[in-house]
Each structure stands twice: as C-alpha cells, then as structure tokens.
Design goal:
- By secondary structure, the chain is an alpha+beta fold.
- The chain has a single domain, classed as Ribonuclease Z/Hydroxyacylglutathione hydrolase-like (Metallo-beta-lactamase, Chain A).
- The protein contains ten helices and 15 strands.
- Helix 1 crosses helix 8.
- The structure holds zinc ion.
- The site of zinc ion has 6 residues, from loops.
C-alpha cells in the first residue's frame, strides 16, 4: 500500500476519534463471528522470560482501583472505557499470517481507555481524561463490533472510588487531541468538567489543528474527514482555552517534580509522551505510539489511526530500546484489559509486551 494512501486511511480512521457525545450513531446489526470466541491475545502471554523484570512497588487496591508507586510517587489506574474496536481499523497493514501468529482476533478487539492519576507535589495530575460521553460516538462508529462488553464514560465514577471528584484535579496533561484523550474534559452539554485544572497540551498539537486548512485538500473524501477532525479539535479547544498552558517544542521538560514530557510526534502532529521518575525506577506513558501490544512485537508495521505512520514507526524501535535499557514500567493507554501496565523483553528481532499481574494479595 502506498504511503500516501496509508496516511489518508489513517487520517480517515482518525476522524472517528473526534466524534463527540451528540454524534452517536445506532450500531449496525451485529455479526456473530466465531473467530473471536475463545481467542486470546497471546502476544501478551508468551513464555519468554524476563531477565530483569521491573517491580511495582507499594501496590494496592483502593475500592477496586489499582495503584502503585514509581520513585516514591503514587499513581492510580483510572479506566474510562472498555471499547470493542473493529480489528480492521487497527490492523489494516498487518498481514493475516502475522495476526494469526500473534493470535490477534481478525474481527474485533477489546481495548481500554485507561489513564494515570499521579499524586505529585500535593497535586492531583491526570494524564489525559478518556472520551467521557464521547465514547458513545466511537461505539456507534464501530458498529460492526459486538458491544456486549463495551463500557464507556467510567472515569468520573472511578475517581469517586478513590475519594476524588473532577474539582480535585489540579492539572491534566493532554498528550494529543483525539477523542479518547480529550473528550472527557467536557460533559454532554459541552461544559468543562474540571474547573480547577490547568490543562497542558503541546503547542505543536494546538497550532496544527488551528492552522490546518482543509479547503486546500483536493480529494473530497479526505477533505471531509479532515474538516471533521479539525471541527472536533477546535470545538474542544474553544472550551478549554482559558485553562490551557502550552508545552513548547523541546526535547524533555519537567512539568512537575519527577514528571517529564517529550515529543512523540507521528500518531498526531504534536503528540507527547510522559514519564514519571528520575531515579532508578521509571514509568513511561507513551500515549498512542503503540495502540496494541502486538505492535511491540512488529514495530515496523504501521497501525491504524496514525496521521503519519512513517513518522510514528520511526519512534518505535528507539523507544523500545530505551524502555528495555532502562528496565522501565510502561503504560499502554489503549491496551486490552489486564495488559495496560507492563514492560518489554527482547524477543527475536523485536520485543514482547509483558503485562504485570495486578492482583493484590
Ligand atoms: Zn490517538
């Protein structure tokens, strides 16, 4: 597939990620596909042994919400949604035999929208906020998937489970402006849900959506998709602008003690990655550089939803080499349930995603 066509497909597929609460569509009649039944994503459960596995310190459950410490900083795992995606949107560039080899279902996959809440310097800091009621729009778009296990708009309840409300959130780092990262900022009436939060977003991301001129795009379908993307981003930008602090372009910046951002441009024009910990222990929230554990094993193959797949692909191997070298704990925001937090170990000429067992004795 030509590069330009792949970029177009990525952009077109990305359009769904901006759909808000009011754009929900009734799902198409569900198709039962026996391929998904009993299929397990064994890409995450290989027997490859880690030589030096990182450990999650001070792990605990608080009313069903898992937490642990990185370098003395407590982090909670806040889930906003479990969404059934049609596999074709994610894996269109993955050959069928590779899908089979990694036991990735060819019809649909259940992914989460799961976000860190970081307690740092007396502040409650969220890394993205899920899709909120905008999850309904994504469920509608993924109309051919069986949504019996889809659950959306869970973030506020999960905050309450650990004794917090949206009012208690002091800062939100928006890694990029896709629905499952930014739409949770607003309620169904498009009113701000986090009145006391400073919202950090990269200036590159902000400018990209503001400066984009869809009218210069000749292809009518692509023009329509880009127009939708821009409309969604700017609709949210308008509501949050008074609370925004821009993260300027730069290599690595410390937003809070031990909490750093750095560019991870490719999936969107200005996506950033966030890391926690400056000592022996480190955690990376790599946002959508990897959308599914299988892309850790096949880092040279493009994933759906990337605005610039070549640019995103160029990030993957250097990041994975660094994650391995630093023995880092990793957070896959979209990874399937029970695989969100893990680490990588080398396998063949790539890596294997190895999730932590989050059960607490
Ligand atoms: Zn995204």
């Amino acid at each position: 597939m030509g590069n330009s066509r792949r970029i177009f497909q990525g952009i077109l597929a990305s359009a769904v990620l901006f759909w808000g609460c009011r754009s929900a569509q009734p799902p198409e009649p569900q198709q039962q596909n026996s391929e998904s039944e009993g299929a397990e994503e064994t890409a995450t459960s290989s027997q490859t042994a880690a030589v030096t596995a990182p450990t999650l310190a001070a792990r605990q459950l608080e009313n069903g919400v898992f937490s642990f410490e990185i370098d003395g900083t407590r982090i909670y795992q806040i889930t906003d949604a479990e969404m059934n995606y049609e596999s074709r949107y994610l894996f269109s560039d993955v050959p069928e035999e590779v899908m089979k080899q990694h036991n990735v279902p060819s019809d649909q996959v259940l992914l989460t929208w799961t976000h860190p809440l970081i307690k740092v310097g007396g502040k409650n800091v969220m890394l993205d906020v899920g899709g909120g009621c905008g999850g309904e729009g994504v469920r509608g778009f993924m109309g051919k998937a069986d949504h019996s296990t889809t659950r959306v708009d869970l973030l506020q309840d999960n905050l309450k489970a650990i004794g917090l409300t949206a009012d208690d959130i002091d800062a939100i780092v928006v890694t990029h402006a896709h629905t499952d990262h930014i739409n949770g900022l607003l309620n169904e009436n498009e009113e701000m849900l986090f009145p006391n939060a400073t919202i950090y977003i990269s200036k590159v991301e902000w400018d990209f959506w503001n400066d984009l001129d869809p009218e210069t795009i000749e292809d009518p379908l692509r023009r329509k998709a880009i127009t939708g993307l821009k409309e969604g981003a700017l609709r949210h930008f308008a509501k949050i602008e008074s609370q925004v602090v821009y993260i300027d372009e730069g290599d690595r910046q410390e937003l809070f003690p031990g909490v750093f951002t750095e560019p991870a441009y490719g999936h969107t024009a200005g996506q950033i990655m966030v890391s926690v910990g400056s000592g022996a222990q480190k955690m990376y929230y790599f946002s959508d550089v990897f959308l599914h554990p299988v892309f850790v094993s096949i880092p040279d193959i493009s994933q759906g939803f990337d605005a610039d797949p070549e640019r995103n692909n160029a990030l993957k191997r250097p990041f994975l080499e660094r994650f391995e070298r630093e023995n880092a704990i990793l957070w896959g925001q979209n990874f399937p349930p029970k695989t969100v937090i893990g680490y990588v170990v080398p396998q063949d000429d790539a890596w294997l995603w190895t999730p932590f067992d989050l059960s607490v004795d």
